[in-house]
UniProtKB/TrEMBL annotation:
It catalyses: oxaloacetate + acetyl-CoA + H2O = citrate + CoA + H(+). The lineage of its organism: Bacteria, Pseudomonadati, Bacteroidota, Cytophagia, Cytophagales. Belongs to the citrate synthase family. It comes from Pontibacter populi. The keyword Acyltransferase applies. Pathway: Carbohydrate metabolism; tricarboxylic acid cycle; isocitrate from oxaloacetate: step 1/2. GO terms for molecular function: citrate synthase activity. This is Citrate synthase. It comes from the Bacteria. InterPro entries: Citrate_synth-like_lrg_a-sub (IPR016142), Citrate_synth-like_sm_a-sub (IPR016143), Citrate_synthase (IPR002020), Citrate_synthase_AS (IPR019810), Citrate_synthase_bac-typ (IPR024176), Citrate_synthase_sf (IPR036969), Citrate_synthase_typ-I (IPR010953). Keywords: Acyltransferase, Transferase, Tricarboxylic acid cycle.
């Protein structure tokens, strides 16, 4: 005691041992439970990956069927939740709604507040959250455009059901495009976990106080919303739009990003851990081309993104600082092509990250980790005497 090591931003402080995700930032390696992200993105489904992250191994057919069915049973949310939703102004950002409604699950399922839940009880809390997040997310969107909400359709798979709740209208039939379903699965898999990032550390820290899974994940959603974290995917599209409106000169924006007197940063560039490339960005860039081609979408913003990437990668400033496109640089372009509105991008990230948050929270509990409580180096005033109002 007495001597505190200062590590602002926890750049070099390990907060836990974890068996969930392996990440090598120098080599650009990402594995969930030992399986390379490239293989999972290509071969697996989001629900299977969620099971893998939460329970530690790939499910047998029986385990997968049971997990899938359990989730389907719980896709409806309590009707009273709609009243909470109605209370939000239509301009509310869906991330704020998501965080509030996930937190409100503690009110509908108070048993989740018990830190000593038995395994079956915790499993139920987990499937409830997996099942209800897409419903809440899609409803927040419907609310924002003033349209009636769609109830979940349990004959549909996880991703198709979400698309149905987002895009179906009572007046028309909605055809779910398999290209869109496949792309959505891939994006959610790529976002599913990323070891001790800001939102996951938040989930673990909040949970370490024995706060419930729902409260902890709600806090994680708030952390993810920040533009330096998950909010970057929305910020990237807004930046690309701005470049387009400005005449499309990417060099001008590179210069702005390099200017230390200008707060502008190249959104979707740089990463705390990846210093060579972000393996998720490599997969997403390829997928962006494939999805846009398959859907017959021509988006001028994709060309601007590629130009900008090219210009940054050959610029000494970015080379010296090892700044590369991260997962958020191309994900927004795919979401746009899928018809997801810009302010829902970070919600999509949250849907993807959910199994990661759950597995990390569960691991923290299973490892019986102590309450998280960083120390500080005090640099304030020495002791001084209280001064009456007339003496100040
Ligand atoms: N544009 C311009 N300069 C940058 C950028 C950028 N996007 N990112 C880092 N730098 C510079 C930074 O100014 C600093 O320069 P100097 O050494 O001259 O002071 C140097 O590179 C190191 O940056 P840092 O801020 O110390 O690095 P960090 O590890 O604290 O921050 C980051 C990582 C991701 C917050 C940062 O790179 C950033 O703000 N990127 C833009 C936002 C973004 O895309 N976030 C999504 C991250 S990936 C998904 C996720 O985590 O959700």
């Amino acid at each position: 005691s007495g001597y505190i090591t200062l590590d602002s931003g926890y750049k070099n402080t390990g907060a836990t041992e974890s068996a969930i995700t392996f990440l090598d930032g120098e080599e650009g390696i990402l594995r969930y439970r030992g399986y390379p992200i490239e293989q999972l993105a290509e071969e697996s489904s989001f629900i299977e990956v969620a099971y893998l992250l939460i329970y530690g191994s790939l499910p047998t057919q029986e385990q997968l069927d049971s997990f899938t069915n359990e989730i389907k049973i719980h896709t409806l949310v309590n009707e009273d939740m709609r009243k909470i939703l109605d209370g939000f102004p239509s301009a509310a950002h869906p991330m704020g709604i998501l965080s509030a409604l996930v937190s409100s699950l503690t009110a509908f399922y108070p048993e989740s507040l018990n830190p000593n839940q038995k395994k079956e009880e915790l499993d139920l809390s987990i499937v409830r959250l997996m099942a209800k997040m897409p419903t809440i997310a899609a409803w927040s969107y419907k609310n924002s455009i003033g349209h009636p909400v769609n109830y979940p359709k349990n004959k549909l798979d996880y991703c198709s059901n979400f698309l149905h709740m987002m895009f179906a209208y009572p007046t028309e039939d909605y055809q779910i495009d398999p290209v869109v379903v496949k792309a959505l699965n891939k994006l959610l898999i790529l976002h599913a976990d990323h070891e001790q990032n800001c939102s996951t550390s938040t989930v673990r820290l909040v949970g370490s106080a024995n706060a419930s899974l729902y409260s902890s994940v709600s806090a994680g959603i708030s952390a993810l919303w920040g533009p330096l974290h998950g909010g970057a995917n929305q910020a990237v599209i807004e930046m690309l739009e701005q470049i387009k409106a400005d005449g499309g000169d990417s060099k001008k924006f590179i210069a702005k990003a390099k200017d230390k007197d200008d707060p502008f940063r190249l959104m979707g560039f740089g990463h705390r851990v990846y210093k060579n490339f972000d393996p998720r960005a490599t997969i997403i860039k390829k997928a962006a081309d494939e999805v846009l081609t398959a859907l017959g979408v021509k988006d001028p913003i994709l060309d601007i993104a590629k130009e900008l990437e090219e210009a940054a990668l050959t610029d000494q400033y970015f080379v010296d600082r090892k700044l590369y496109p991260n997962v958020d640089f191309y994900s927004g372009i795919i979401y746009r092509a899928l018809g997801i509105p810009t302010d829902m991008f970070t919600v999509m990230f949250a849907l993807g990250r959910l199994p990661g948050w759950i597995s990390q929270w569960k691991e923290m509990r299973e490892q019986k980790e102590p309450i998280g409580r960083p120390r500080q180096v005090y640099v304030g005033e020495k002791e001084r005497n209280y001064v009456q109002m007339n003496g100040r």
